[in-house]
Write a structure and sequence with these properties.
Layout: H1 18-28, E1 31-33, E2 39-41, H2 55-66, E3 69-72, E4 78-81, E5 91-93, E6 97-103, E7 114-120, E8 128-130, E9 134-135, H3 137-143, E10 147-151, H4 158-173, E11 176-181, E12 199-204, E13 214-226, E14 231-238, E15 271-279, E16 285-293, E17 303-310, E18 318-319, E19 321-323, E20 326-332, E21 337-345, E22 355-361, E23 373-380, E24 383-389, E25 397-403, E26 412-417, E27 424-429, E28 437-445, E29 455-461
Parallel strand pairs: 5-12, 7-10
Antiparallel strand pairs: 1-2, 3-4, 6-11, 7-8, 7-9, 11-14, 12-13, 13-14, 15-16, 16-20, 17-18, 17-21, 19-20, 21-22, 23-24, 24-27, 25-26, 25-28, 28-29
Length: 463
């Protein structure tokens, strides 16, 4: 309920007159015969409101689309009022009225004589749809066409829109009366029963025979009480109960749903997965996964949708940011392996299936370091000492490899160490056996683990 919703009017439940809400719910559920056959509920609302939209504006849109509005009940709580005209709350006579002012829409050049209703339905693809206009032929004959639009953005039904439009045409053209009364006017402050529009009977016949007689049923549009002067100022609108009479034929020409075009299946997807490197500083780089699709000739409706996840025990897929035929991930971890999938989004039949694009290993630093030089092994007591000169360029670590044969491809990495570019580094191999031939290599690796060419082999026989 908008009046109590946290993102709406935010009224507490105790501030609501729930009896009037229930009465209006019963009115809204009344079955109304439809021109197309069957029945539909009397009044329904659907739609949305935005958080930056004023609550009064939202309530005005709801009122326009349903005829239901909020009002303050006699006990100060907030209730709902609407539906058809009901039982008049009271009768006010000339002896209770201290002043009276009348106004006719046609003489004041107010209102309109042609009303064009609009409604919003699922069958019309949620587009505001124009209906046949209501016309006040008497006013048209006298003053020419004065048209207005009645946009019911929360009205989902053609019958409801036409019925509300018929009432609105009468309301927009009716005579209005403003009266100032004594305390008897307090009887006109509230409707007699919930679930109906608020009316009173006005019987203004001056006893001295002077002035215009105004007799009939009027709807209370506004009521103000002055506690100092003990008087009521009431704005009234003439009631035309004929505007509530309804024949399903008055729905006019039934609006049919636009044809649904036949669509082809999604086209084949051809896409390439790459990594995109962003240099965030002189020393640091950041990697993203990028998917680029091959354009499909004649299909400017297509957009690429892609997702990625780290390879492993089924982590959740994460959506990439799409822009036309490309999609990019957030920053990903250097050295990690990611799975990637993609599909088309566009004007075609059904939903495209995900296509597995395989895995990608992230390498933020793809350029290998230089080669160490001057690798020299020497025997110590129970160990082999290694020394070498580091490459002159950048590197992250130095890896030391050993084998018992002159074959780097089968050598084992026995340790790592750091060092300064262009300077001498050393390493001590304590896990050796006596009287054994060893071959050693040293390679520099960057931050992504990419190695350059190794120094070596350097061979030595332990004592």
């Amino acid at each position: 309920h908008y009046l109590t919703h946290a993102d709406g009017y935010r009224l507490a439940s105790a501030e609501m007159d729930w009896a009037s809400v229930e009465a209006m719910a019963d009115v809204a559920d009344l079955p109304i015969p439809q021109k197309a056959g069957g029945t539909a509920p009397n009044l329904r609302l659907w739609g949305y409101w935005t958080l930056d939209e004023g609550p009064v504006d939202v309530l005005d849109r709801m009122h326009a689309s349903s005829g239901i509005r909020a009002y303050e009940a006699q006990d100060g709580r907030i209730g709902l009022i609407g539906g058809n005209y009901g039982t008049p709350a009271c009768t006010i006579t000339a002896k209770d009225i201290s002043s009276i002012t009348t106004k006719e829409a046609i003489s004041e050049r107010e209102g309109y004589n042609v009303l064009i209703p609009f409604f919003l339905s699922e069958e019309q693809k949620f587009e505001l749809t124009e209906l046949e206009p209501w016309r006040d032929e008497d006013r048209l004959a006298e003053e020419g066409e004065i048209s207005a639009e009645y946009r019911m953005e929360m009205c989902p039904n053609q019958s409801q829109a036409r019925r509300l439009g018929k009432k609105q045409l009468a309301d927009g053209n009716r005579a209005k009366v403003e009266i100032v009364t004594n305390l008897v006017g307090l009887k006109a402050r509230y409707p007699r029963y919930p679930g109906q529009r608020h009316t009173i009977l006005l019987d203004y016949r001056p006893e001295d025979g002077s002035g215009r007689e105004i007799v009939g049923e009027y709807e209370v549009l506004n009521h103000q009480f002055d506690p100092i002067n003990l008087e009521c100022r009431i704005e009234l609108g003439a009631v035309d109960r004929a505007s509530e009479e309804w024949d399903p034929e008055e729905e006019g020409e039934l609006i049919t749903a636009p044809p649904t075009p036949e669509l082809d299946p999604p086209p084949e997807l051809s896409a390439v997965v790459t990594q995109r490197i962003i240099i965030t500083s002189a020393e640091n780089r950041q990697a993203q996964i990028e998917v680029a699709a091959t354009p499909v000739p004649g299909r400017d409706d297509l957009e690429l949708q892609a997702e990625y996840r780290r390879a492993g025990p089924l982590p959740l897929w994460e959506r990439m940011v799409s822009s036309g035929l490309t999609a990019r991930s957030d920053a990903v971890e250097d050295g990690a392996v990611y799975s990637v999938r993609a599909r088309w989004v566009g004007s075609f039949d059904g939903v495209d299936e995900w296509e597995d694009l395989g895995n990608i290993t992230i390498v933020a630093y793809a350029t290998p370091p230089g080669q160490p030089t001057a690798l020299i092994p020497s025997n110590g007591t129970g160990y082999v000492h290694l020394s070498w000169r580091n490459p002159s360029g950048e590197f992250a670590r130095l890896r030391v490899y050993r084998n018992t044969a002159n074959d780097f491809s089968t050598a084992t990495m026995i340790g790592t160490t750091g060092g300064v570019a262009g300077q001498i580094s050393e390493y001590q191999d304590d896990a050796i056996s006596a009287a054994t031939d060893y071959w050693y290599w040293v390679a520099a690796a960057n931050a992504s683990g990419i190695e350059g060419a190794p120094a070596g082999p350097a061979t030595i026989t332990t004592p």
